[in-house]
Amino acid sequence: MAVITSRFADGLAVGANLVETAEAAVRRALAGLSGPPDLVCFFICGEDPDEVTRAGLRAMAMAPEARVIGCSATGVIGDAQGVELQPSVSAWAASFGGGGVATFALDTLRTADRFVVVGLPERGPGDRAAILLADPYTFPADAFIEHSGDVLGDLPIVGGLANGLGGRGSVRLFVDGEVHTEGAIGVVLSGPVNVGAVVSQGCRPIGPSMVVTRAEENLLLELAGQPALGRLEDIVSALDEEDRELVASGLQIGVVMDEYAERHERGDFLIRGVIGIDPEREAVAVGDVLDIGRTVRFQVRDAETADEDLYSLLDAHVQRAGRIDGALLFSCNGRGSAMFGSADHDALAVRDMLGPIGVAGFFAAGEMGPVSGHNHVHGFTASLLVFSAGPAPGQMLR
């Protein structure tokens, strides 16, 4: 059943007939609102892209008075549950009572030496946040998000990379009655909307913070004046057996976002993967290009750490923002049952910390959200756009 609040509500439905399932999910979400909907978001998991398309068209038709966006996914979240790899639809409806809602669709054009994104909305003085849903196979999400500040300023962008059970070619994006098979779609929220972001990267630091003293592209050659690989080996040798297993299963590196902070602890880093080593050069390859002078710290991730991190960040946000009314949740498809043994983990954590509010989302192939005021694409992250009745609009939490 839908979770009823004054301004936000969600609906979840599971069933092989995706059109009927979409109807049920959207109907439940709309029924939970105490006013007319301004925005409806929906997420569809199904094997046949054509059936996903029909379900999306039906979902959009059910809220003609609202702005509507949606996408395909490999799993959906709603009613404090996660559903993975099964025919299912989740829906979320919001009644902002005066806030502006402007949808958009983005395409890319190839020039001689680069891609150009077209369809960007114009910034307005009252803009609070943007929701973005993108096809990872056709849209340069990483580059777009990393350079979004050049065009959109400090506008927070929260969302996820869509997918389909058939992979490339099966992604479907929906916006205001239209279906897109590539690019990105989204919505800009403006006006008196109290909105914030919570981005839980779920990592724990190991070893000391170190300054990058020599690097080439994404290859770390020296850390704190010593060969990077030697530094990493020293750190790993000092770990207990459990943490060594975590290193072996997927080492991460955290890039400090505030170089002026006196201490750098969990939550102070942008997490990127360690993708290999070069024994001949005694170097470590990472999933980003790091400049000389940046401070980094190696990290590990496990279910316990990810659980603690999400609960801690949600608690901090409640302390800062006050009563929470609704949220959109974009959870990595590597979390859920793969990490926690249950697809429900992130949805239940949000219910535990924020209460029985309207929350829906999907399992994404990459998550978007701001860290220390800058937008990034993440992996293995739970990224939330949280709506509250608390302090000034636009207040953000990393």
Structure report:
This protein is α+β, with helices and mostly antiparallel strands and 398 residues long. The protein is 23% helix and 39% strand. It has nine helices and 27 strands. It has a seven-stranded mixed β-sheet with strand order 8-7-13-9-10-25-26. Strand 11 and strand 12 (178-180) form a beta hairpin. The longest helix is centred in the C-terminal third of the chain and has 19 residues, at 303-321. The radius of gyration is 21 Å and the shape is globular. The chain starts with 7 loop residues before the first strand and ends in a 10-residue tail after the last strand.
Attribute tags:
alpha+beta, 9 helices, seven-stranded mixed beta sheet, globular, 398 residues, single chain, FIST_domain_N, disordered N terminus, disordered C terminus, FIST N-terminal domain-containing protein, six-stranded mixed beta sheet, 39% strand, FIST_C, 23% helix
